[in-house]
Amino acid sequence: MLQAFREWRERRRVERMGYTRQEWEAAIGHWPVAARYQGAERQALFEMTRRFLVRKSVAPAEGATLTDAMCLTIATMACVPILHLGLDWYDGWYTVIVYDDAFVPNRAYMDEAGVVHERGPALLGEAWHQGPVILSWQAVRSAGGASNVVIHEMAHKLDMRHQGANGAPPLHAGMSAARWHDTFSRCWEALQEDYRHHRHMPVDAYALTGPGEFFAVCSEAFFEAPAALYRDWPDLYRLLAQFYRQGEQP
Ligand SMILES: [Zn+2]
Q: What are the recorded GO MF terms, alphabetically (predicted)?
């Protein structure tokens, strides 16, 4: 009863928000990943994007510009990873803050030399535990290759649902945590070796920052450049496919 009421209220709010299919298509037309979703799946992505915008507040940082098309783009990119998981996977936080460009968090941080600075280095994206996601629009619009800052931060959000952003998101029934850990560790070690020997790297070296970053960077590659990730790391690809409930092959 309550659930049915919530769904009815959400549908009404979606209708009142008023984004049309044409506006959505125009907004996401430049993003090649969206072209992979056709037919019923494309309609489902459109529906989920509108529900995302009803449930979340996408707001400009002070002085930043944010258009409807930008909101639709960000929401669509955010919904791709959870299209087959459900919007509830983003429960527990509400706000996406969008800067025009890279932003400097207003808090102290310690650099690698142990020096404490009053303000941190400039960032392109950030996800707070049970708090907002913060994005640079410049970074969002330069998605491509194997990178996508929205998918990166959303992967952190999914990861945080189980013991913080440590590269071990909550797995579905039937998935083995040991296998997940072994496969990700093996690829992590291989990436370290590739880095050390200046070889081709299946994902960006930023992944070596920590296990949480490794999962987020692999998630970016999984959606932005699936064929390359599958070629280089088929076992890891298959685990991500199971987690995101996508096809076993790109
Ligand atoms: Zn990250």
A: aminopeptidase activity; metallopeptidase activity
